[in-house]
From TrEMBL:
InterPro entries: AP2_Mu_C_sf, AP5M1, MHD. Keywords: Cytoplasm, Endosome, Lysosome, Membrane, Protein transport, Transport. This is AP-5 complex subunit mu-1. It holds the Pfam family Adap_comp_sub. Probably part of the adaptor protein complex 5 (AP-5) a tetramer composed of AP5B1, AP5M1, AP5S1 and AP5Z1. The gene is ap5m1. It comes from Salarias fasciatus (Jewelled blenny). It is a peripheral membrane protein.
Length: 491
């Protein structure tokens, strides 16, 4: 694996961002140029990379609530392996740009993909992606140590040492220490820590009570139009995060993900480089194009030797037949009043037990709210006239019918103009849902406590959890026009 470029960026929630360190490797860039041929795109200047990277990570343009390239509901982000679209005479995209965020730093690199640019190879087939993330994780530990916010002098001194450190660990853009290739031998019993070599990507050994924590989080997005001419869209993105406090230099842990008998196979798998081996059937089923009736549907076993810090074991997407909450929304103008009608229905397959569930109905680009005469069949309605916003708090459960309604009239006769928003003009209005459901996933994916295997000298306490939450979950006004996007979502 070789690197074309490396960047260390400091930021404070996107403000005062600056490239603190960058390194380009001309010999690797020469190989990239020969490999890409006419499709070659040179690495831009640091200020261009800084702007595009912060935008992609959502750390820039805080004054702009909507950035099409980043916030489009149909756009599928691919972090930590991203695609940066570079504007200029030579328009194109840098791929795969790897980035990890930790505390005040963004660590990013552009590995050389040893494959022709077209057709683009799947991420799982590029060893450079896993090894590039491993290198960034090692640099993160070197720069920040065990904490997340080192003092300014400490960080400055480590950055000053970085050129000489890279000369030793990454000469000519090729990292020397990466996890060994091939499946590791499974120990019959716990091996003494002193006989194992400490890997370069692991800077210490855990001492204390052993605990393994595995958390599965699924995020669902949706755009519902309530119009037969427009197809509703939704997709599900899942992440499995682990924190393994286990004694030993190279303890072996195996986490198994299971699906229900009728569950759809997991797709677009992106796996942490510490995972030592995978069943080939998992990789062949990880692409949407390869999904058919014979596709692999689990269980998904991930053997690995964990780093000390919390890490994302894997991420995936899943095709589900319906979104969790189906809704309809209609607005009608009546002189200086607006008649509002909304209906929300919880699908029968979803657990009726929320940590929270709210529906936000904004009315931008109008005068300030005056008289609000709106009733709801369940939950509580909070009216914020200054923000021209209705917040419908549905609580922790839908009623027995799993269906709720909102209906009424709103007049806009306030003394001042209300808030403006480019997405909510005329009848282009929406309901945005915010919810979290503990102990459930939309795909049915789960990690059982008894399926987590740990080969260590001490038996650890194993904690598992799973939950479902919303993100960019919109129900558009069916009597108006909704924004049209050029991106794609799974249906």
């Amino acid at each position: 694996m070789t690197l074309r470029a490396l960047w260390i960026i400091s930021h404070e929630k996107g403000e005062n961002a600056a490239v603190r360190f960058s390194r380009r490797f001309s010999t690797v860039e020469h190989r990239a140029k020969r490999l890409a041929g006419p499709c070659y795109l040179a690495v831009p200047e640091d200020n261009v990379i800084l702007q595009h990277l912060l935008t992609e990570l959502g750390l820039a343009d805080s004054d702009k609530p909507y950035v099409a390239l980043r916030d489009d509901c149909l756009y599928r982000p691919g972090a930590p392996a991203m695609e940066l679209h570079v504007d200029g005479p030579e328009k194109g995209a840098l791929w795969p740009v790897l980035a990890i965020l930790h505390g005040p730093l963004v660590l990013a690199c552009l590995p050389l993909a040893d494959a022709p640019p077209e057709p683009r190879p799947p991420l799982v087939s590029l060893l450079s992606v896993s090894q590039g993330l491993t290198l960034l994780a090692g640099l993160q530990t070197f720069l920040l140590g065990s904490g997340s916010k080192p003092d300014g002098e400490g960080l400055a001194s480590r950055l000053a040492m970085l050129p000489s450190v890279l000369l030793q660990i990454c000469p000519l853009g090729t990292p020397l220490d990466v996890p060994p290739l091939g499946p590791p031998a499974t120990p019959a019993g716990p091996a003494p820590g002193g006989t194992q070599k400490q890997p370069a990507w692991k800077t210490g050994v855990h001492r204390g009570r052993p605990v393994v924590n595995v958390a599965l989080l699924e995020t669902v997005r949706s755009m519902q139009y309530g119009n037969r001419s427009r197809q509703d869209l939704w997709d599900v993105y899942g992440t499995v995060t682990c924190k393994c406090e286990v004694e030993g230099v190279l303890p072996n842990v195996t986490v198994t993900l299971s699906l229900p008998p009728n569950g759809s196979p997991l797709q677009d798998l992106l796996i942490h480089p510490c995972v030592s081996s995978l069943d080939s059937s998992i990789l062949t089923a990880s692409s949407v194009d390869n999904c058919d009736s014979s596709a692999f549907s689990g269980p998904y076993k991930f053997p690995f030797s964990p780093p000390l810090e919390p890490f994302r074991l894997c991420s995936y997407t899943s095709q589900v037949p319906v979104p969790p909450i189906l809704g309809s929304y209609q607005l009608k103008e009546e002189e200086n009043q607006l008649r509002v009608t909304a209906n929300l229905k919880l699908h029968e397959s979803v657990k009726n037990n929320f940590e929270y569930c709210e529906a936000h109905l904004p009315f931008f680009n109008r005068d300030q709210m005056g008289v609000v005469e709106v009733k709801v069949s369940s939950g509580q309605l909070d009216v914020s006239k200054e923000k021209n916003l209705l917040v419908w708090a549905l609580g922790q459960k839908f009623p027995k019918s799993r269906e709720v309604t909102l209906e009424g009239k709103i007049s806009f006769s306030g003394p001042a103009a209300g808030p403006a928003d480019p997405l909510c003009t005329e009848l282009t209005a929406y309901i945005k849902m915010y919810f979290k459901v503990p102990d459930t996933t939309l795909s049915g994916c789960s990690v059982d406590q008894h399926s987590v295997q740990v080969y260590s000298s001490a038996k650890p306490r194993i904690v598992t959890s799973r939950e479902l939450q919303s993100n960019d979950y919109f129900i558009w006004n069916s009597t108006g026009s909704a924004p049209v996007s050029s991106g794609q979502m799974m249906v």
